[in-house]
Each structure stands twice: as structure tokens, then as C-alpha cells.
Write a structure and sequence with these properties.
13 strands, 10 helices, 302 residues, TIM Barrel
């Protein structure tokens, strides 16, 4: 089982680099960044560095672990441009990039930057066309494509990625369309979810794989959950009593180890841990929590 790190996207580059170098040295497997431009809130003033530029810089100073986006909004860039970006970063990093992509959902950044948002159906259709284009550009000498939304005429992509294939990760849990697209195109798949959610979603993904005549084992399954790791029982009880915005892993080291075991038994290949709940602006506290997770809770699964 792999364990990867997702730094809070509002942190400055120096902090991201320090945390990234720490997780690499201590045995983590990857680092993921959110491809957004601003908070999903009324107050959008928090600093938010661009994800792909940040990953390029991190690649030069973090030489071992995988680098990916959770996930790139397809609406933000033409898929041919995105494919060129990912292939270039794959060369910069020595073949460590995962291109995470989704249909796009955060309306405020579309509105404020003047990016067309479209309705859900069109965003998903665009995502399907984009996945087809990206895979073709990665593998074929020239790509011509005439779709409803994108058109390419004998388009090259050189140099090709170092990896063959460069992994395409599709993020999202929509059961009718997104998981079908994952079964059709993805090398990897990601969703926020509890163990119960993952068990259900993966059954649906497997059904789509069957309809696509694809081996479900070919898709690397990744999950994200917030982490509240502590030996303070009062704090843990308080967190369990709250209604949290996202699924969360809550417990002491032994309890978290049991929960990791449940994710593993459910078929999760990689668990991605954000630092969002580990103390604002306190990198030492974050490093300590990350170390406790990997060295105590994740023991036996690495």
C-alpha cells in the first residue's frame, strides 16, 4: 500500500518545499497538489500558488517521489496544452508525473476569471473528449480529432512522456459517467471517501470495467480522507461528534492503524493524507503528525 501527502494549497512555496522534502526523506510515496486558483469561499483573498508551476519547481528539489494533481480541472486548459505540460514535467522529473484530471466543479474561479463553466453534462462530455485526446497525444505520432468540443489536425506531441504510459488519473465518484470514464481511460482513480464509500464506488467501477471489457486490476485505486491523529481522547471525541465537510480518519495510532487496514482490505492501493487538519502555519507540528502516521499507524502496510 502506498501513502502520499497533500499539502494545504494556501501555503507558500518554501513551506511546501520543506514539507515535500520531509515526506520524501521519511519514506512517503507521493505528493499531490490541488489544481485550483482560489478558495471556494466568499473570501478569495488567501494566497493560492498555481499547481503545475509549483510541481515543476518541487520536481527539481524532491527527486524520488511521485508528483500529481488532485485534480486538474479540465475546463481550465485545452487538453492538448495540458498533455504538453504533463509530458514536459515528466521529463523534468525523470518520469514521476501522474496527470490527475476531473470535469471541474469550482464555480467561483470560473466566474472570477471569465472561464466558461458549462453545465454538468457538458463538463463531463468535455472530460471524455479530453481523456481521448490526451491518451492519443501521449501514444501516437500525430493526432487528428473532430469532436463536439475539441478539434485537432495532425497535432504532434514531442517529446513523448518518459513513462509509457504516463498515468492518467480520473478523480470523482459520479457513478453513471465519471466512473465509466475511469473504466474507459484511467490508469488510476481517486475519490474522497470513507471505507464504506470506497467499497460501494469500487463495485460500481468494477461493473463499468466489465462493460468496457477491461481488467479492474489495471486501475490503481486511491482515496483521500482528512486525518485527526492524537492520543488525546477528549479531542478525538470532539472530532467524532462534529459534522465534517469531508470524510475523516479519526483516532489514536492503534485506531488509525485499524482503519488503514479497512481501506487496504477494501482494495485501496494508495491513501492520500492532507495536512489540512494538522495545525495552521506550524510545520513542526505537521512533520510530527506525518511521522506518527507513517511510523506508527501505517506500520505493516508499507
Amino acid at each position: 500500500m502506498k501513502f502520499s501527502f497533500w499539502p494545504q494549497p494556501t501555503q507558500n512555496f518554501d513551506t511546501m518545499q520543506q514539507l515535500g522534502q520531509h515526506v520524501e526523506k521519511t519514506g512517503w510515496d507521493g505528493i499531490w497538489l490541488a489544481d485550483h486558483f482560489m478558495p471556494n469561499a466568499e473570501d478569495t483573498s488567501a494566497p493560492w500558488p498555481e499547481a503545475w508551476v509549483t510541481l515543476s519547481a518541487l520536481a527539481m528539489n524532491i527527486p524520488r517521489i511521485r508528483l500529481g494533481t488532485l485534480v486538474t480541472g479540465n475546463t481550465y486548459r485545452h487538453p492538448a496544452v495540458l498533455a504538453k505540460m504533463a509530458a514536459t514535467l515528466d521529463h523534468i522529473s525523470g518520469g514521476r508525473v501522474v496527470l490527475g484530471i476531473g470535469s471541474g466543479w469550482q464555480e467561483n474561479e470560473h466566474e472570477k476569471y471569465g472561464i466558461p463553466f458549462y453545465d454538468v453534462s457538458e463538463r463531463l462530455k468535455r472530460l471524455g473528449e479530453a481523456c481521448h485526446i490526451i491518451q492519443s497525444l501521449f501514444t501516437n505520432d500525430l493526432t487528428s480529432y473532430s469532436g463536439e468540443f475539441y478539434q485537432l489536425v495532425e497535432a504532434p506531441l514531442e517529446p513523448k512522456p518518459v513513462q509509457s504510459p504516463l498515468p492518467l488519473l480520473i478523480g470523482g465518484g459520479g457513478e453513471r459517467v465519471t466512473l465509466k470514464l475511469a473504466a474507459q481511460y484511467a490508469n488510476e482513480w481517486n475519490v474522497w471517501g470513507s471505507v464504506e464509500t470506497l467499497i460501494h464506488k469500487m463495485k460500481v467501477l468494477d461493473q463499468h470495467c466489465e462493460s468496457q471489457q477491461r481488467d479492474p486490476a489495471d486501475i490503481h485505486r486511491t482515496a483521500v480522507a482528512l486525518l485527526f491523529l492524537s492520543e488525546d481522547q477528549k479531542f478525538l471525541d470532539k472530532m467524532r461528534s462534529r459534522t465534517l465537510a469531508q470524510p475523516a480518519i479519526i483516532g489514536n495510532a492503534n485506531e488509525v492503524r485499524d482503519i488503514i487496514g479497512e481501506y487496504h482490505a477494501a482494495g485501496v492501493d494508495e491513501l492520500i493524507i492532507p495536512d489540512f487538519t494538522m495545525g495552521t502555519g506550524n510545520t513542526a507540528q505537521k512533520r510530527d503528525t506525518l511521522d506518527s502516521f507513517l511510523n506508527q499507524a501505517a506500520v505493516g502496510f508499507r
